[in-house]
Amino acid sequence: MDSDYGALGAGIGILGWLLYMAVIVFYIFCMWKIYVKAGKPGWAAIVPIYNILVQLEIVGRPWWYLLLMFVPVVNIVISIMIIFDLAKVFGKGIGFGFGLLFLSFIFIPILAFGDAQYTAPVVAAQ
Fold first, then answer.
1. Per-residue H/E/C for the chain
2. Whole-model pTM?
3. Domain count of the chain?
4. Which of 13, 69, 70, 89 is deepest in the core (most CB within 10 A)?
């Protein structure tokens, strides 16, 4: 009887792992599309640390913000700034920025596959 529960648990675990991997692959694909829309190489979305540098270029922030990403608590503030800047450079408003912040699993695909067009970085223009 116990072996039946073990097999069931293993099956659920494998199914959960496969679902988790599918979500990760879909998120990477969405970020790839966003980078390509911004005129950057899509493969940059899968390279750790370099993807943050490219995202900083997309939103028009200086490279040294990457160093701030290693400072506890400051990294949260910088990440939120980058999220709202990402919404702005794709012509979206502050409401979309809040969507990216709190419901990114919905708004990242909207940004990737929607009709949003990349514009010049907001910060660089100031």
1. CHHHHHHHHHHHHHHHHHHHHHHHHHHHHHHHHHHHHCCCCHHHHHCCCHHHHHHHHHHCCCCCHHHHCCCCCHHHHHHHHHHHHHHHHCCCCHHHHHHHHHCHHHHHHHHHHCCCCCCCCHHHHC
2. 0.86
3. 1
4. 89
Distance of alpha carbon 32 from alpha carbon 30, whole angstroms: 5
> Does some domain include residue 78?
yes
- Each of the 126 residues of the chain gets a pLDDT tens digit; together they read 456 677 777 778 888 899 999 999 999 999 999 999 999 999 999 999 999 999 999 999 999 999 999 999 999 999 999 999 999 999 999 999 999 999 999 999 999 999 999 998 855 544
